[in-house]
Amino acid sequence: METITSTITLLKKAYQLLVTAKSLSELYEENKNITGKYVHATSRGHEAIQIATGLQLLPQDYLSAYYRDDALLLAIGITPYELMLQLLAKRDDIFSGGRTYYSHPSLKREDLPKIPHQSSATGMQAIPTTGIAMGMQYKELEGLPTEDVKPITICSLGDASCTEGEVAEAFQMAALKQLPILYLVQDNEWDISASADEIRAQDIAHYAKGFKGLEVFSVDGTDFLASYEVVKKAIEIIRTERRPILIHAKVPLLNHHTSGVRKEWYRDDLEEAQSRDPYDKLKSMLLNEGVEIEEINQIEKEIADTVKIDYQNALKAGDPKPEDLYDHVFAPTPITEEKGNRSPEGKEKTVMVDSALFAIRELMAKHPEALLYGQDVGLRLGGVFREAATLAKQYGKNRVFNTPIQEAFIIGSTVGMSAVGLKPIVEVQFADYIWPGLNQLFTEVARSNYLSNGKWPVSMILRVPIGAYGSGGPYHSSSVESILTNIKGIKIAYPSTGADLKGLMKSAYYDPNPVIMLEHKGLYWSKMKGTEEAATIEPDEEYVLPFGKAREVLVTDSSSEHNSVTIITYGMGVYWAKEAAKDFSNQIEIIDLRTLVPLDEETIFNSVKKHSRCIVLTEEAKQNSFAQSIAGLINENCFEFLDAPVRVLGAKDMPAIPLNSVLEEEMLPNSTKLKSLIKDILNY
Ligand SMILES: Cc1ncc(C[n+]2csc(CCOP(=O)(O)OP(=O)(O)O)c2C)c(N)n1
């Protein structure tokens, strides 16, 4: 990035960029019949602060630029042509290959700042971006390689987005941990049509001051030189002192909110806003510095001409091909085969919870980029199930630490951690409390690889203790896999034995994609009758188990003498099925899915075809469940082989699992209920 020395050179550079951004905005408006096909927003009115920021970033810096930041993107070095390819959702769109909207960047170029995937959900970038800063800090504390000139993180936000709860989670963590991040808030006092006085009790400068340790600078964001100076000061502090700063930049919104909404419909401040146009101010600055009006006009003309040619070229560029749809759902994983020793000789059985713990212990010993965080996983407790016991003692508080009760932060920060090359293993305390983090999982984690066209897969493991166990009651018993399996772009394991849990945890770690480990609390210690076999010999350190390979728990030949049935299940269902099978000699086959995504369809279909009868068994409430979707798949693919309807046994469709053990038992499946269904199916 060139160093800008003299004020006049700087002003000219800024002016060129501002005029470029303005020309784009005007060109899009003039051609709205064409450009309006895909919704877009432009920076018009916000350009000065954006350019002042973009000009000062280094290639090692990380940037989250929101949908109004096209001037910022120009300032870091993105060309108008590249932006227009995104405007028109063309195949060569450098950010997403035509998958996402204008000015929704993702960039991984050697010579430019790095931009992880940016969603349209307002404010939601605050957590992932704060995760980047947390990753930078981790690398510095742990002595991992980093640049001589330390990198910083910029999180750009609109003012209205800052009232969102997740933004508070991000500020809290940045202040608490003193992270190297700049929050740049562009305050135009508009939400879409809602004005500041309707939607906020105070502006961001007042609000942010409540976060102790987050310093706030305010600036007139239409004044280029003032903006440049304040950004320079903030960046210098962050680079050297490694602490968070928020810049509150007041700006007018001069264009429509987006191409989909007309400002004339609801704005009553257009004249006042126009009086603060940063374009007029910058032009005056140039004239005051003695630049001739002819030179200024020449700059404008050249830019307008270039932008028009770029637009014509962008129009001619090709659309994505239909087959492009299928690329980059997941990044390829190196683990494709089972390897290592699953049951080394001379070892005692290990309970499931320890198999997971030992897997993580081995991973952390081997990989300094592995770290673990979540609620209560730190030194004092090591997890409410002791599922992380001893880890903090062994690896220290940088690598294993407690977080506040912030499920959104726990999950969403992994996007940033992964972007800087770390491998976060995180945990929500109970499946029942995954909901506050679901937005980050859906909006950010799951879509990053796909919408960045394969540039930014998120490598993370999310551990989720799940399932009903000993009257856990309505908020410590829920199953959530049907919701999770509906989120495309994440892998999901649901092991039922310690050996599988260890092998899958290892495999998840080496997988470049997000992985959720659903760990049944009722199997953790094999305390419940019938679950003894969840405890297994602990596989050796090299053991890995690829995703998408079901386990044949009980294999039975089909026979012309009698009917037989296969039970497709996972988690606790494996043990209900094993118990029930004892009553049916040579008539039951049991398949344990082990991973729900990807799903081992081949093993399911082969088993169904062999036995012609099938039950899908789940602990989850039945209606609209993942289990029902498997039943649907079986019907689609094995119909000709079936001698009985595919049946699903799940929990009763109640809003929650009641606390009282009588009610709990009535609600959940068990081996007795399963036996009765098996009889029906065998006799069908
Ligand atoms: C979570 C979420 N809710 C609603 C929207 C719809 N929406 C798009 S932009 C916007 C207003 C955002 O205002 P602000 O953050 O101040 O940024 P500005 O557009 O004014 O620059 C809204 C409500 C969204 N994109 N994301």
TrEMBL record:
Required cofactor names: thiamine diphosphate
Listed SMART domains: Transket_pyr (SM00861)
Keywords assigned: Oxidoreductase, Thiamine pyrophosphate
Gene3D superfamilies documented for this protein: 3.40.50.920, 3.40.50.970
Keyword Hydrolase: no
Top-level taxonomic group: Bacteria
Gene Ontology molecular function: branched-chain 2-oxo acid dehydrogenase activity
EC number per UniProt: 1.2.4.4
Broad enzyme group: oxidoreductase
InterPro entries in alphabetical order: DH_E1, THDP-binding, Transketo_C/PFOR_II, Transketolase-like_Pyr-bd, Transketolase_C
Record keyword Oxidoreductase present: yes
Domain Transketolase-like pyrimidine-binding: 350-526
PANTHER family registered for this protein in UniProt: 2-OXOISOVALERATE DEHYDROGENASE SUBUNIT BETA, MITOCHONDRIAL, 2-OXOISOVALERATE DEHYDROGENASE SUBUNIT BETA-RELATED
Name of this chain's protein: 3-methyl-2-oxobutanoate dehydrogenase (2-methylpropanoyl-transferring)
Species this protein is from: Chishuiella changwenlii
Organism classification: Bacteria, Pseudomonadati, Bacteroidota, Flavobacteriia, Flavobacteriales
